[in-house]
Design brief:
mainly alpha; 9 helices; 2 strands
Length: about 170
Amino acid sequence: MAPKKAKRRAAAGDSGSSNVFSMFEQSQIQEYKEAFTIIDQNRDGIISKDDLRDVLASMGQLNVKNEELEAMIKEASGPINFTVFLTMFGEKLKGADPEDVILTAFKVLDPEATGSIKKEFLEELLTTQCDRFSKEEIKNMWSAFPPDVAGNVDYKNICYVITHGEEKEE
């Protein structure tokens, strides 16, 4: 006999949203709830186009086109209640490439398979290739992922944070 949770998931069609609350820490859920409450300007429990227009206006964006607002609303599969809102954030967070894909990309830069890359080398790549990092973005990255005393950056930790949204417990 299957456990109750498995039965509920099967009955729900395992759409992915059935487990959305387990994707986040309780503190993160509370922060998303606060954000949802701010966006839900009319306090009806659903984020509408008018709610988006009002919250954007309160932040100084006064000339947002209807098409832009409609595109935002259409990102959801239906009315945006808190569960749908949380699911959308979960999907965006999980929208990054899978951890193994990102790790493989970093491993190309680590032929000795040490699990780390020299800070100077990574910084040069990030400031001179493709979508170049600004000095501020580099500064933020080093504050989030400081190199060790030898100047090595643990790219496995960076990959974990990109795909899971938080640092691993050591």
